[in-house]
From TrEMBL:
Compartments where found: Membrane
Keywords on record: Membrane, Transmembrane, Transmembrane helix
Swiss-Prot/TrEMBL GO biological process terms: oligopeptide transport
Name of the protein described by the UniProt record: Major facilitator superfamily (MFS) profile domain-containing protein
Stretches that traverse the bilayer: 83-106, 113-136, 148-169, 190-218, 224-242, 342-362, 382-402, 461-488, 509-528, 548-570
PANTHER family referenced in this protein's UniProt entry, alphabetically: OLIGOPEPTIDE TRANSPORTER-RELATED (PTHR11654)
Length: 592
């Protein structure tokens, strides 16, 4: 085995300049042996379908655990309501934050193929351990007692192994799926556009199965059985994924985007006292004309990284003793412009975080609300976490209506292809505001019924299900779900289309960090509100969750106003007229 590399590693690491490489060869892609990829024998929908399969099982596993975890923490581990909600949001936040780590490893060392395979195995191990931990009575506290530090510690180990696996593989799945299509071929480029729609459909399908089938198994058969099914599904998905090794196309990495960004920042900081040249043409550039990115005058402080300082920029490279630019001292204009492109994404990035804080309430407090309400439909009682089926259903219905009805209608009436990515994000933010207002009104009604029930029974808490239908929660699930359909697709499109070509994995990770920070902000906000007010008590019936929902609605209104300003700036910055104005202004400044 020594002296040999795995097929996937060879495929990812071998550089093939290609230059076309023949009529049936895919430029910039290799097969599992490291040879130029044959279009007829590699890639396409057959390979992409195997990638979609592992995403389906990942969502089934992660969401099958997350959506019903809060009921396990409150009913079995006996944690207070707010503490249980924070455990869930911290778990989900960590999962998405670790996408940055997965992207870094994929770009710098492992490649996307190995990153998916390795971290999928990690997630399978974590899920299997979780199944075992929920089966052992020693790891559950006796009735009426809160879980001990050891019991919670074992649970945390299992959850964060799952989070590590999820973050690692999720950062590369969409990128590896698009690697199976050649964007230089018209037919394959069209198929790549369909891949994003089907990718999100499989995400929703996995979530739908999680909140229906798996939640039912957890509540009526046993959590250990449900988590065991998740582990088995992931192992099956890994086997199917590996079976496509010979069929996949592999793209060589141009290096870690994080390192490239740091190089620009360090080089610019080192030269902060150097006077910039009179013309942009005097800045350093090492790329051929067809691969260059045009210089812009925005963020001029970063241009210092491309200012040439003679021998100070060079270092001895190789045994021949020839000097070459040190990338930590001198960067090309195109490299600087790539960093500027990422910087332009940040205002929109910052103003989309709050939506995912609202999303977090759908799998924490909203599920807790459902546990107290009448969930009977005939002789069948709906599991509380299965109410999120309305959430997933709203996503899938919104996407279907948008694709099949709205876009053709819009194309006929206006000639446009529907909403832009920024418009989609704005619609999603607006729907989340309405969703939180509906949630606050629903909770006020539920609390009134709970107060009446407690007064009637004389107990401090309502022992049985409240005489109020759980379907009263439907509007908040539908509104926030429809909002996610718009904002998720809008964000993904925005970050991928407006990022540098060599930083697609990085931009996907950047997008997923908005989910991570949204979950973490939910934890912080819950802790602050619990410490400063009496709105969040030990049980949901002794809380004023409606006040918390109104707080989120008000914050979302302010956030939407900030987003609109950022979106107008981003739209203006992307127009050709504005770009020309930037160049003209830059030249004028340089002549002064």
């Amino acid at each position: 085995m020594e002296g040999k590399k795995t097929a996937a590693t060879t495929a990812e690491m071998l550089a093939w300049s290609g230059g076309g490489g023949g009529g049936n060869m895919v430029r910039d892609a290799v097969d599992y042996r490291g040879c130029p990829a044959d279009r007829s024998a590699t890639g396409g929908w057959v390979a992409a379908a195997l990638v979609l399969g592992i995403e389906l099982c990942e969502r089934l596993s992660t969401m099958g655990i997350a959506v019903n975890l809060v009921t396990y923490l409150t009913a079995t581990m006996h944690l207070p309501s707010a503490a249980a909600a924070n455990v869930v949001t911290d778990f989900m936040g960590t999962s998405f934050l670790l996408c940055l780590l997965g992207g870094f490893l994929a770009d710098s060392f492992l490649g996307r193929y190995l990153t998916i395979a390795v971290f999928a195995v990690v997630q399978s191990i974590g899920t299997a351990l979780l199944a075992v931990s929920t089966l052992m009575p020693q790891l559950r506290p006796p009735p009426g007692q809160q879980a001990t530090a050891v019991q919670m510690g074992v649970l945390y180990v299992c959850l964060y192994l799952i989070a590590l696996g999820t973050g690692g593989l999720k950062s590369s799945v969409s990128g590896f799926g698009t690697d199976q299509f050649d964007d230089r071929d018209d037919r394959e480029r069209a198929a790549m556009g369909l891949f994003f729609n089907r990718f999100f459909f499989f995400i929703s399908l996995g979530t739908l199965l999680a909140v229906t089938v798996l939640v039912y198994v957890q509540d009526h058969v046993g959590r250990s059985w449900a988590y065991g099914i998740c582990a088995a599904a992931m192992l099956a998905a890994i086997a199917v994924f590996l079976s496509g090794t010979r069929r996949y196309r592999y793209k060589r990495s141009s290096g870690s985007p994080i390192v490239h960004i740091l190089q620009v920042l360090v080089a610019a900081a080192r030269k902060r006292g150097i006077k910039q040249p009179l013309t942009a043409a005097a800045l350093y550039e090492d790329r051929p004309d067809h691969a260059r990115i045009t210089h812009t005058a925005q963020f001029p402080c970063l241009d210092r990284a491309a200012v040439m300082a003679g021998d100070d920029d060079n270092e001895v490279a190789g045994p021949d003793g020839r000097a070459a630019p040190n990338p930590w001292k001198l960067c090309s204009v195109s490299r600087v412009e790539e960093v500027k492109m990422l910087a332009r994404l940040m205002p929109v990035w910052a103003t989309t975080i709050l939506f995912w804080t609202i999303y977090a309430q759908m799998i924490t407090f909203s599920v807790e609300q459902a546990t107290t309400m009448d969930r009977r439909v005939g002789g069948f009682e709906i599991p509380a976490a299965s109410l999120t089926v309305f959430f997933v259903g709203a996503i899938m219905l919104t996407l279907a209506v948008y694709d099949r009805v709205f876009i053709p209608l819009c194309r006929t009436l206006t000639g446009k292809q529907g909403f832009t990515n920024l418009e989609k994000i704005g619609i999603g933010l607006a729907l989340s505001i309405v969703g939180m207002a509906a949630a606050a009104l629903c909770e006020k009604k539920r609390l009134a019924v709970a107060a009446t029930a407690m007064a009637t029974t004389g107990n401090s808490t309502a022992a049985a299900a409240l005489p109020i239908s759980v379907f009263l929660l439907t509007p908040q699930f539908l509104l926030v779900g429809a909002g996610e359909a718009f904002i998720y697709t809008g964000q993904l499109d925005f970050f991928i289309t407006r990022s540098p070509k060599g930083m697609k994995t990085m931009s996907t990770g950047l997008f997923l960090t908005t989910l991570s920070l949204g979950f973490f902000f939910s934890s912080v906000l819950v802790s602050l509100v619990k410490g400063a007010t009496t709105w969040l008590g030990d049980t949901i019936d002794r809380s004023r969750l409606d006040y918390f929902y109104w707080l989120l609605a008000v914050l979302s209104v302010l956030n939407l106003a900030a987003y609109l300003v950022c979106a107008m700036w981003a739209t203006a910055a992307s127009t050709p007229e504005h770009q020309q104005q930037q160049h003209t202004a830059g030249d004028a400044d340089e002549k002064c």
